[in-house]
Write a structure and sequence with these properties.
This protein has helices at about 5, 10-20, 25-35, 45-55, 70-80, 125-130, 135-155, 170-175; strands spanning about 85-95, 100-110, 115-120, 155-160. It is of the alpha+beta class and about 180 residues long. Helix 2 (about 10-20) runs antiparallel to helix 3 and helix 3 crosses helix 4 (about 45-55). The N and C termini lie far apart (about 60 Å). The mean pLDDT is about 85.
Length: about 180
């Protein structure tokens, strides 16, 4: 059954919302719906329902699927291909509208800066409320592969908050 609020949107808006859904830009899609909808403007929850319906209609997953398992050899090859030398391997929490994930980084000594090796995600945070997965398996995965990668290059591994998501935890460079 087609949502009447969806049908009330101009065709150009519906096409643009579908483009945004295909790019996984949910917030932008909600704004597009609210900006173009005739009065009374649908609320956030009604817009989100429409977005979920569009994901299904377009054959897309609404929830974030798990990332591929980290492979030590692949990560090591990526580090070796970088210019300069690594100073540390670090895991840091990050998040977006779907939930928390861990970025596995190599902190470069020369030239300075961070290089993201992988984003480790085991699904959106809704899984925690549904009880479908133990809390924070992405942290366990990064805490297993990260130290092995660091050892391979003779550098320290740092993960300031492996038990609880915290995107403001001190970084390796901050502690030096």
């Amino acid at each position: 059954m087609i949502n009447p609020a969806w049908e009330a949107l101009p065709a150009q808006t519906r096409d643009h919302v579908d483009e945004l859904v295909l790019k996984n830009l949910r917030i932008h899609a909600i704004k597009e719906i609210r900006d173009a909808a005739p009065a009374p403007v649908p609320g956030i929850h009604e817009c989100l329902d429409m977005i979920v319906e569009r994901y299904a209609a377009l054959g897309q997953r609404f929830d974030r699927g798990p990332s591929a398992p980290l492979e030590l050899e692949t990560l090591a090859a990526e580090v070796r291909a970088l210019p300069g030398r690594p100073a540390a391997v670090e895991a840091v929490w990050d998040g977006d509208t779907e939930g928390w994930f861990v970025r596995l980084l190599v902190v470069m000594d020369e030239p300075g800066g961070d290089h993201c090796l992988a984003i480790v995600s085991h699904g959106g945070d809704l899984r925690l409320f549904e009880g479908t997965v133990a809390p924070w398996p992405e942290a366990r995965e990064a805490s297993t592969v990260g130290p092995a990668l660091a050892e391979r290059f003779g550098v320290p591994f740092h993960f300031a908050s492996p038990d609880v998501p915290d995107d403001s935890a001190p970084r390796w460079r901050d502690l030096r």
